Amino acid sequence: MKKILLVFILMLFAVNTGFAADKYSKDYLQNHRHFAIMNPIAESMAEHIIKSSLKKETGGKYKVKFDGYTVSSMKKGIFKNLEITGTDIVSEGITIPYVHLKSLTDYNYVDYTKDPVEFKSDMKFQYEMMLSDESMNTALKHSNYKAVLDNINNIAYPMFEVKGVSTKIMNNQLYILTEYNFPIAPSPKNKVFVASSGFNVKNGKIRAANVKLNSAYGNISLNKVANMLNLLNPLEFTLARLETKECDANVENVNIVDNKVKIDGKIIVKGD
């Protein structure tokens, strides 16, 4: 989510010159040396250009609401409010069905002339996003997830070896499918262990909760299964693929709604 925010900010000010140089806003600046409300035409143009630029960068569809103080302050990278709703966007190769981002601070200052951009004021955003099976399964194919599996296999050896992990959401339940085999006496075909899991959030981390197994697995400790799911943690890994160092994001709530994982929380950007 943090990488998505950074893309939004970069796109917002990458197009700054385009709408700030509009003839209507230029005339307004020339004739009014001090004003508090930005010309609505410039705001409308800003929203249109931001949507077009975001679509070009990440695909998907967007609704944008943008409020500035003045054209001149906006040219410096200062804005009042920003609200973006995106559907079916792509970040880091991961398709995200829904994202909503809204600024909570009413003074936000970004020096977009620097590379990388510098955040000149503290900023806070509320976010909500939805992840699908496709979102998580795409993330789990990334080479970095192999390191997660290698770590688990080092612990599990010689009892079993995890070969791969995938997810499936059905009836608002997340099922985690773990493909495994036995390193010492391998079976001709990999086996699949299936567990369903809910979530809770502890100290900003997503943890397995209300783990359920099919009775065919017999008397297996659910606590041990939960610990394994927390190590595999496909949801945390997917979120990690969307993070960046430029800001801090925390997860507040996780639920499954309409067979999508709904996550919300806040993103805090510390100004220099």
What does this structure look like?
This protein is an alpha+beta fold and 272 residues long. The protein has two domains: 139 residues, no CATH class; 102 residues, no CATH class. 33% of the residues lie in helices and 38% in strands. It contains nine helices and 13 strands. The strands form three sheets. The chain has a six-stranded antiparallel β-sheet. The longest helix has 19 residues. About 8% of the residues have low confidence.
What keywords describe this structure?
272 residues, alpha+beta, 2 domains, six-stranded antiparallel β-sheet, four-stranded antiparallel β-sheet, 9 helices
Helix content: 25-40%
Quickly count the helices. 9
Q: What is the number of domains? A: 2
What integer is the average pLDDT?
82
Report the uncertain regions: 17-38
Largest sheet: 6 strands, antiparallel
Order of helices and strands: HHHHEHEEEEEEHHEEEEHHEE
Strand content: 35-45%
Structural class: alpha+beta
- From the alpha carbons, calculate the radius of gyration and give it in angstroms: 23 Å
How do the strands line up in the largest sheet?
1-3-4-7-13-12
Oligomer: single chain
Distance from N terminus to C terminus (CA atoms, Å) equals: 21 Å
Number of strands: 13
